[in-house]
Design a protein that fits this description.
Helices cover about 75% and strands about 5% of the residues. By secondary structure, it is mainly alpha-helical. The chain folds into two domains: about 70 residues, no CATH class; about 140 residues, Helix Hairpins.
């Protein structure tokens, strides 16, 4: 197969555009801001789950507090009733003595239920503090996500613009290359990690980066400039200019 030096140079330029496209695609798939967005999104999801759990816990504790408050009110009401009865002096001495004993028991009971109520109130305060902290973290993460989303969209838009302009340039250049040579290039590129043509620099192929022996290098120099040659090692089209 033959191709003028100008066409072979165009093929090398086409390879550069294809390499640029590969780099753009790789960059688009490995954007640091995209990774940061995913990490922040995952963290927000975890914190939101913790927030829901904390709010549920607070509701449960408040139910306990309501029951404890009822217990305190009931004991206080009973004490008030017995104190009034005792103060009235109505009843036999034995009944009044029993009433005095009951008031002592009720006082102990009130202390117990008030301690329970206080312990529950402390738990509510602890959960409220945890909820407040989680809400602040979630708000900060939501703001961060909005920022990262905007940055991600801007970078993707820039890469898409580069992709489109490079693709247009590639199509225009490919149309100027002989169909047979282009077909060979595409076949090699598909099976060669995206590289179908490489330049010979000194005694090294820039496709496989292997150094040629003296005999092979002498052979290549003896071949006509318009002859399409391939690297003996990687079989890529070798551009010798």
């Amino acid at each position: 197969m033959k191709a003028t030096r100008e066409v072979q140079e165009k093929l090398l330029a086409l390879q550069q555009l294809d390499s640029d496209l590969i780099q753009i695609k790789h960059k688009a798939s490995t954007l640091p801001v995209a990774r940061q967005f995913d990490e922040a999104s995952s963290e927000l999801s975890v914190k939101q789950d913790l927030l829901v759990a904390a709010r549920t816990e607070r509701d449960d504790i408040k139910h306990e507090l309501s029951r404890a408050e009822v217990d305190v009110e009931q004991v206080a009401s009973r004490i008030e009733k017995d104190e009034k009865r005792l103060a009235s002096g109505l009843g036999s001495p034995k009944e009044l003595e029993q009433l005095q004993h009951e008031l002592g028991s009720l006082a102990k009971r009130r202390a117990e239920v008030e301690d329970v109520e206080l312990e529950i109130m402390v738990r509510v305060e602890g959960v409220d503090l945890r909820i407040k902290e989680l809400e602040e973290v979630c708000r900060a993460l939501e703001i961060r996500l909005d920022e990262l989303k905007l940055m991600k969209e801007e970078e993707i838009a820039s890469l898409e613009q580069s992709m489109n302009s490079t693709s247009h340039a590639r199509s225009d250049l490919a149309s100027k290359i002989d169909a047979e040579l282009l077909a060979l290039y595409e076949k090699i590129r598909t099976s060669g990690d995206g590289v179908g043509a490489a330049k010979l620099v000194g005694n090294q192929c820039t496709g496989c980066h292997l150094t040629m022996n003296a005999a092979e290098l002498t052979r290549l120099k003896s071949v006509a400039d318009d002859e399409v040659v391939r690297c003996e090692e990687c079989r890529r089209i070798l551009i010798r200019f």
